[in-house]
C-alpha cells in the first residue's frame, strides 16, 4: 500500500516536469536542493489558486482588506514578535557523517539514521530565519532577515490599515506572499521548501468577554477552511482536523487546529487555524480606538494557508488513470474547472487547411481575452484530447469543415468525454456558465 502511494507521488512529479508545471530549480546547473520553479502551466495554476483565495476572502467580503508588505523588515519586528529568540528547531548532528536532523523528529539516543553508526550530538537550538546583509557592509548592524511568515507584515500595519480604511471590528487583513525558513530537513517535493508562498489572514475581534465569543469567530474560520479544501477538489475523507492538545499549543495560542491531508508520504499538515489572542498586537504595542474613544487591544484569529501545499494536494486529488478500453489508459487531471491552468484547447481539424486555421485562430482570439487557452494543431485529434486531459483542460474545441458552414464547433468534455456542437458566438457564455 505504502509503495503504491509513493508511486502516486512519483507520477505527479514526473507529470509536472514533463508537462511544464514544476521544474527542479536551477536544473541546468544540477539543481539546488529543495528549490522548485513553476513552469508555464504551474504559474497559471498558482495564479488561479491565489486569485480564487483573494476573491473568496477579500473581494467578496466587506469585513476584509488586503496588503502586500515588504519581504525584508526592520529587525526590531523580529525582536518584538519573539522570532529572534523563539523561532528555532532543535538540531542534532552526526559525529561521523555530519548529517543533520531535527531532534524532535528522530530518536536521538539511537545512532545516526543515515550512516547507522555515528553518535549524535546533544540538541542545540537552530534559528530558522534566513539572514542577509542590507547594503555593502557585512556587519552585525546590517543584518536583516527574510520574513519567516507573512503575518508580521500584517500586524505591523494594523494601525495604518485600521486608520486609513476606517475599519470597524471585527475585520480582517489578508496577504499573499513569499516567506523563507532555513529548514533543517526540507523535502517531499514542494511540501516543505525553504522558500514558499503563504496566504494568511489575521482576523481581529474585540477582546472577548467570554470563551463563547471567540469560539464563534473561530468556528466561522474553521468552516471557511473546510470550504476552501472542497473548492480545491480535495476529497472529504482525505482531509482531517487535528485539534492540537492544550499542553502542545504554542505559547501564544489558546486553540489551534491543524488541517491535515493524506499525502502519499503520510498524513501531514496542510493548513492551520489558530486563536492568537492579543499576543501579537501587544508585542508591537498596538491598539485600536473604538467609536466611544476607548482604547483596546483586539484579539486575533489566524487562518494560515500555503499556496504550494494547496497545489500539491489539489494535484494529488485530481490525478487519475482510467482504462477506456483494454490496455488503453488515459491520464486525467480532474482539477476543479476554475483551477485548471488551461480552460480550453483550440484545435483546427487539419493544420494544412488555411480556412480551418483562420477559423481556429478566430475562436482562440475570441476566448483568450477572458480565458487561458491553448492552440494545438499537432497530430490527430484523439492525441490532442489526451494531451489536454493530462493537464486538466476542461474543454477541447475542434474546428472542422462543418464549422465553415454553420459556425459551430465540437466541444468535448474532459470528464465525460462527451461531445456536443456549440455555436462560436455562444462559446463565451458556455465557458462562463460551466467554468466555476
Ligand atoms: Zn551519520
Written account of the structure:
Helices cover about 30% and strands about 30% of the residues. By secondary structure, the chain is of the alpha+beta class. It folds into two domains: about 1-80 and about 150-315, BirA Bifunctional Protein, domain 2 (2-Layer Sandwich); about 340-435, Rossmann fold, CATH 3.40.50. A seven-stranded mixed beta sheet has the order 3-10-11-17-14-13-12. Strand 13 (about 255-265) and strand 14 form a beta hairpin. The longest helix is centred in the middle third of the chain and has 21 residues, at about 210-230. The protein is globular. The two termini are about 35 Å apart. The model has no long low-confidence stretch (mean pLDDT about 95). Zinc ion binds near residues 94, 96, 97, 114 and 118.
Amino acid at each position: 500500500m505504502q509503495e503504491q502511494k509513493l508511486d502516486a507521488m512519483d507520477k505527479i512529479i514526473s507529470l509536472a516536469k514533463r508537462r511544464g508545471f514544476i521544474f527542479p530549480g536551477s536544473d541546468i546547473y544540477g539543481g539546488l536542493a529543495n528549490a522548485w520553479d513553476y513552469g508555464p502551466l504551474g504559474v497559471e495554476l498558482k495564479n488561479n489558486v491565489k486569485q480564487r483565495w483573494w476573491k473568496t476572502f477579500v473581494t467578496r467580503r466587506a469585513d476584509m482588506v488586503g496588503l502586500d508588505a515588504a519581504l525584508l523588515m526592520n529587525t526590531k519586528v523580529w525582536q518584538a514578535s519573539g522570532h529572534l529568540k523563539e523561532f528555532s528547531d532543535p538540531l542534532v548532528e552526526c559525529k561521523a557523517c555530519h548529517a543533520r536532523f531535527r531532534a524532535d523528529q528522530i530518536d536521538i539516543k539511537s545512532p545516526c539514521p543515515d550512516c547507522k553508526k555515528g553518535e549524535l550530538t546533544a540538541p542545540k537550538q537552530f534559528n530558522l530565519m534566513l539572514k542577509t546583509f542590507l547594503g555593502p557592509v557585512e556587519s552585525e548592524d546590517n543584518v536583516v532577515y527574510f520574513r519567516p511568515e507573512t503575518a508580521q507584515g500584517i500586524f505591523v500595519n494594523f494601525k495604518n490599515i485600521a486608520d486609513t480604511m476606517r475599519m470597524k471590528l471585527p475585520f480582517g487583513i489578508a496577504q499573499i506572499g513569499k516567506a523563507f525558513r532555513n529548514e533543517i530537513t526540507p523535502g517531499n517535493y514542494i511540501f516543505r521548501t525553504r522558500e514558499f508562498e503563504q496566504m494568511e489572514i489575521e482576523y481581529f475581534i474585540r477582546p472577548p468577554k467570554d470563551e463563547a465569543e471567540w469560539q464563534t469567530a473561530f468556528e466561522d474560520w474553521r468552516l471557511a477552511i473546510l470550504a476552501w479544501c472542497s473548492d480545491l477538489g480535495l476529497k472529504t475523507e482525505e482531509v482531517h482536523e487535528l485539534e492540537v492538545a492544550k499542553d502542545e499549543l504554542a505559547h501564544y495560542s489558546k486553540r489551534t487546529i491543524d488541517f491535515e491531508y493524506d499525502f502519499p508520504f503520510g498524513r501531514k499538515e496542510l493548513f492551520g487555524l489558530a486563536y492568537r489572542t492579543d499576543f501579537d498586537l501587544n508585542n508591537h504595542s498596538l491598539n485600536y480606538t473604538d467609536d466611544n474613544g476607548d482604547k483596546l487591544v483586539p484579539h486575533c484569529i489566524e487562518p494560515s494557508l500555503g499556496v504550494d501545499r494547496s497545489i500539491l494536494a489539489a494535484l494529488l486529488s485530481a490525478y487519475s488513470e482510467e482504462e477506456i478500453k483494454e490496455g488503453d489508459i488515459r491520464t486525467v487531471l480532474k482539477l476543479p474547472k476554475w483551477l485548471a491552468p488551461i480552460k480550453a484547447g483550440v484545435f483546427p481539424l487539419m493544420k494544412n487547411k488555411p480556412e480551418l486555421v483562420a477559423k481556429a485562430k478566430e475562436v482562440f482570439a475570441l476566448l483568450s481575452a477572458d480565458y487561458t487557452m491553448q492552440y494545438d494543431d499537432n497530430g490527430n485529434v484523439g492525441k490532442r484530447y489526451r494531451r489536454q486531459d493530462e493537464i486538466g483542460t476542461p474543454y477541447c474545441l475542434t474546428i472542422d469543415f462543418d464549422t465553415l458552414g454553420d459556425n459551430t464547433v465540437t466541444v468535448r468534455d474532459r470528464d465525460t468525454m462527451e461531445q456536443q456542437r456549440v455555436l462560436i458566438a455562444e462559446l463565451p457564455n458556455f465557458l462562463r456558465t460551466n467554468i466555476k
